[in-house]
Amino acid sequence: MSKYFFFDVDGTLLPFGKSIPESAVYSIKAAEALGSKCFIASGRSLAELPKFENLEFDGYICSAGATIEIDGKRIYSAHIERPLFDKLFAYLQSHGLYVLTQTDRATYMSAEAEKMFKSLLLKYIGRLVELNGLVISDSIPEDEDVKKVLFLSDESGYGVERVRAEIDPAFTVVNNTVGLPTNLMAEIVLSGISKATGIEKVLSYFGADRKDSVAVGDGSNDIEMVEYAGIGIAMGNSSDDLIAVADYVSTDIEDDGIKNAIFYALSGGFDGRGKEKG
């Protein structure tokens, strides 16, 4: 039976700092050959997405649901209005936080923010994460729509939980999924927009049923889509909060995790090397 697959990128398709496993490539191709459609559902912007060699996806949910493209056609777009963004940016800077601003064209950060980001990645995960579309700048062009904001704190500074408690209700603070401590980095997205709302819009576009959707992720920002999809799958390397809501837990990303997730979804629930919940 064909399905609508939605894959997170970092920690799901891509091991941090590495390329997509070969078993994931051929498994996605096999699913497509059987009539399934495959989509990216990522917190990354369009500009940040890596090039997946030998793979073509049917569409992209980017910036955690704020941008949706199918076959090169923009079917949905939401952004943070500039006055609201300016207020948020000023608040974060006033507390000594380092800001990464995401648009469809680029991700903007200061030289100081880049230095902090790289130092935290090297300290906590031992390698850098490839980020396309990076622009080192202290300002964001007025003609670009801000999709999402990320922020970093040094270990003695203003932490994520304080921001979460004080943030404007127009926003939701989501834990980072790049492997950094959750009190040192987080994402700020518009409330009411998520990967789950992105999946809903894609299914509506195709006239597809929710029960035929499969969401595969590994982190906190995948919770909504894993709960929403007809089949919600957590990778074996997933955070505990995602595993708690998943229907099925696959194997690790570097241990055929995508292959086993796809096999489970297309085989009608056969429990292979992963673990079915319930």
Protein architecture, described:
By secondary structure, this protein is α/β, with parallel strands linked by helices. It folds into two domains: 4-78 and 193-276, Rossmann fold (3-Layer(aba) Sandwich), CATH 3.40.50; 82-190, Hypothetical Protein, Haloacid Dehalogenase-like Hydrolase, Chain: A, domain 2 (2-Layer Sandwich). The protein contains eight helices and 15 strands. The chain has helices at residues 22-33, 82-94, 111-124, 160-166, 195-206, 223-228, 240-243, 257-266, and strands at 4-7, 37-41, 59-62, 67-70, 73-77, 98-103, 107-109, 134-136, 146-152, 171-175, 185-190, 213-217, 231-234, 248-249, 275-276. The strands form two sheets. Strands 5-4-3-2-1-12-13-14-15 form a nine-stranded mixed β-sheet, with helices on both faces. The protein has a six-stranded mixed β-sheet with strand order 8-7-6-9-11-10. Helix 1 packs parallel to helix 8. The longest helix is centred in the middle third of the chain and has 14 residues, at 111-124. The radius of gyration is 18 Å and the shape is globular. The model has no long low-confidence stretch (mean pLDDT 92).
